[in-house]
Amino acid sequence: MRHKHSDYMHWSKTQSRARFNLATSGVASFPLPELPVDLKQLEINGDNSYGYAPLQQAIAAHHGIDPECVVESAGTSMANHLAMAAIIEPGDKVLIEHPAYGPILDVAHYLEANVKRFRRAEENGWAIDPAEVRRCITRNTRLIVITNLHNPTSVLTSDSVVREIGDLARSVGALVLVDEVYLDAVYENTPRTAFHLGPEFVVTSSLTKVYGVGGLRCGWILAQPDLAWKMRQLNDLYSATPVFPGELLSVAAFKRLNLLRERARGIVETDRKLLRDFLVEQSNLSAVSTPWGTTSFPRLLNGNADAFLNRLRSKFDTSAVPGRFFEMPNHFRIGMGVNTEMFAEGLNQLSRALILADGHTI
Ligand SMILES: Cc1ncc(COP(=O)(O)O)c(C=O)c1O
């Protein structure tokens, strides 16, 4: 039987909610009335067979590339699916980072790829080590997949390392898929997309995580024109045509992109400061801190993380994402940027649960 589901997505849709929800990865919703759009002008149908030109242009302008290289998709989820499905054939070797965002692995398995892994080591700050990629790549590798920022850790991979990965890929005729859905959560000196680094790069992203307009499902792939066309045609077998009102609203969001980003930034940065102070106090947690991103991935030093998170949810009404969804069962992921009051109380509940787990009474 082919792999046809995502344990993480199912958990996220059915088990992740709590009064104090630290199981998020995206920022607070941006209010619709603040988008520069006259809702009376919204249309249901429009000219968007292979994408709506003004939206493709907005995405292209955002990245400083040619609209020919932009493929619209339903979120980064469909972007990753389309990109991988267009590039690989069953049995092709695909090298994916470890730990990885579960649905990326699920799609690769669904497409019957021969999935290999390269390790991002916690002791190395979760950095990508090009020597490790070199050790794992072979003449048969067709695709290397990374996330930048890394989900779950929010670690940034520098252009020079991304370029090294590109050189390795090129040396065996492979491509590199870089999922950049969190990259714009680097608020200072935001790196340019890896798409500029060479033709071996295919990039996926969306407005879903950093901008607070996830419901628009505005996602995209950046690919060389031939490959971009392959993806558009493949999409004829999936969602076929984008949702036109969503495209109109997405164009409006691009007009105010900085405003959307800055609003979220305030919350993300306040939450990050709270998280830093919290982590300093915790003797049972270890975490690699980053100055950017919307997630952090602490490790529970003593005790079973799954049991701890179950208790955290049932007794403290607080949720976080179990590390098992990233193949790291002693860790868990905390999300920032939704609501600072809720975040602060979530950390407070987390610290009470940690005291209890330590054998103290509360
Ligand atoms: C690395 C990564 N890629 C893709 C996605 C899916 O994003 P979207 O909501 O744009 O489909 C997520 C969502 O959490 C993610 O973390």
* Uncertain residue segments: none
**C-alpha end-to-end distance:** 49 Å
Bound molecules: pyridoxal-5'-phosphate
Fraction in beta strands: 15-25%
Characterize the biggest β-sheet: 7 strands, mixed
Radius of gyration: 20 Å
Listing every helix as H and every strand as E from the N terminus to the C terminus, the arrangement reads: HEHEHEHEHEHEEEHHHEEEHEEEH
Tally of helical runs: 11
Would you count the extended β strands for me?
14
Mean pLDDT: 97
The global form is: globular
Strand order of the largest sheet: 2-8-7-6-5-3-4
Class inferred from helices and paired strands: alpha/beta
Share of residues in helices:
25-40%
Walk me through what this model shows.
The chain is α/β, with parallel strands linked by helices and 362 residues long. Helix content is 38%, strand content 15%. The strands form 4 sheets. It has a 7-stranded mixed sheet, with helices on both faces. Strands 10-14-13 form a 3-stranded antiparallel sheet, with helices on one face. Strand 5 (141-147), helix 6 and strand 6 form a beta-alpha-beta unit. Helix 3 (75-87) crosses helix 7 (225-235). The structure holds pyridoxal-5'-phosphate (PLP).
